[in-house]
């Protein structure tokens, strides 16, 4: 399973170059060219990161991210923009950006910044997180038990990713179901089935009665 990025960029040539670069690094990219389509895309699917230009049709990147943050969307976001003045830089961070990269930029630098922010999502500056005898590799999103690779379905992998981002934190069923939403409805019963499959693998998932579940580190 690849990290899914939403790219808002109305410069066709730059967008094509970025898509080629990011797909070569095994990121899954959804490309949009205006603010309205970007907003719709965030309703239809969950993303691991937003890459937003600022001066785009319909809704500016600044207004768009501000609206998403006010709605509770905490998806990491990087602005990629030709606006290089201090006031714009300040506004970018004020509306909730995790990083701000001025055009023209070095592609290798962009990849480094994306990788760093994705690791930070897991509250880790390492490339892997350990829970008991399990290791979750952040960049490749792979689960290992000791040295053996654990094969997971796409939805089980999403669950595993969510729990490893929140080790020892109780996650409500509503939050989990919302995080799994990708244009498809997930029922309470289906969630229990997937949780039980992960328990059979050996992941120490604890039921918090009436609330949700927790991945316990000990």
Question: Percentage of helical residues?
Answer: 40-55%
The chain-level structural class is alpha/beta
CATH class of the largest domain: Alpha Beta
CATH architecture of the largest domain: 3-Layer(aba) Sandwich
Q: How would you sum up the global shape?
A: globular
List the helices and strands and how they pair.
Elements: E1 4-8, H1 12-24, E2 28-32, H2 35-44, E3 49-52, H3 61-70, E4 77-81, H4 86-94, E5 99-102, H5 107-121, E6 128-131, E7 134-137, E8 142-145, E9 148-150, H6 154-165, E10 170-172, H7 173-180, H8 188-201, E11 205-208, E12 212-215
Parallel strand pairs: 1-2, 1-3, 3-4, 4-5
Antiparallel strand pairs: 6-7, 7-8, 8-9, 10-12, 11-12
Helix pairs in contact: 6-8
Write up what this structure looks like.
This protein is an alpha/beta fold and 218 residues long. The chain folds into two domains: 4-121, 3-Layer(aba) Sandwich (Rossmann fold), CATH 3.40.50.2300; 128-215, Winged helix-like DNA-binding domain superfamily/Winged helix DNA-binding domain (Arc Repressor Mutant, subunit A, Orthogonal Bundle). Helix content is 42%, strand content 22%. The chain is built from eight helices and twelve strands. It has helices at residues 12-24, 35-44, 61-70, 86-94, 107-121, 154-165, 173-180, 188-201, and strands spanning 4-8, 28-32, 49-52, 77-81, 99-102, 128-131, 134-137, 142-145, 148-150, 170-172, 205-208, 212-215. The strands form three sheets. A five-stranded parallel sheet has the order 2-1-3-4-5, sandwiched between helices. It has a four-stranded antiparallel sheet with strand order 6-7-8-9, covered by helices on one side. β3, α3 and β4 (77-81) form a beta-alpha-beta unit. α6 (154-165) packs across α8. The radius of gyration is 18 Å and the shape is globular. The chain starts with a strand and ends with a strand. The model has no long low-confidence stretch (mean pLDDT 91).
């Amino acid at each position: 399973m690849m990290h899914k990025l939403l790219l808002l960029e109305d410069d066709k040539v730059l967008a094509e170059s970025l898509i080629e670069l990011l797909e070569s690094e095994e990121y899954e990219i959804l490309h949009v060219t205006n603010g309205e389509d970007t907003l719709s895309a965030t309703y239809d699917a969950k993303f691991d990161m937003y890459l937003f230009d600022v001066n785009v049709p319909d809704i500016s990147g600044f207004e768009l991210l501000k609206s998403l943050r006010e709605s509770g969307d905490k998806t990491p976001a990087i602005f990629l923009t030709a606006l290089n003045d201090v006031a714009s830089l300040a506004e970018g961070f004020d509306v909730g950006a995790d990083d701000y990269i001025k055009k023209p930029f070095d592609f290798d630098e962009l990849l480094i910044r994306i990788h760093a922010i994705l690791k930070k999502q897991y509250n880790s500056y390492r490339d892997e997180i350990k829970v008991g005898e399990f290791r979750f590799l952040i960049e490749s999103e792979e689960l290992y038990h000791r040295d053996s690779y654990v094969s997971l379905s796409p939805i089980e992998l999403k669950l595993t990713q969510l729990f490893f981002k929140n080790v020892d934190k109780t996650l409500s069923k509503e939050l989990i179901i919302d995080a799994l939403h990708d244009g498809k409805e997930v029922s309470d019963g289906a969630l229990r089935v997937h949780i039980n499959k992960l328990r059979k693998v050996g992941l120490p998932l604890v039921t918090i009665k009436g609330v949700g579940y927790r991945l316990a580190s000990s």
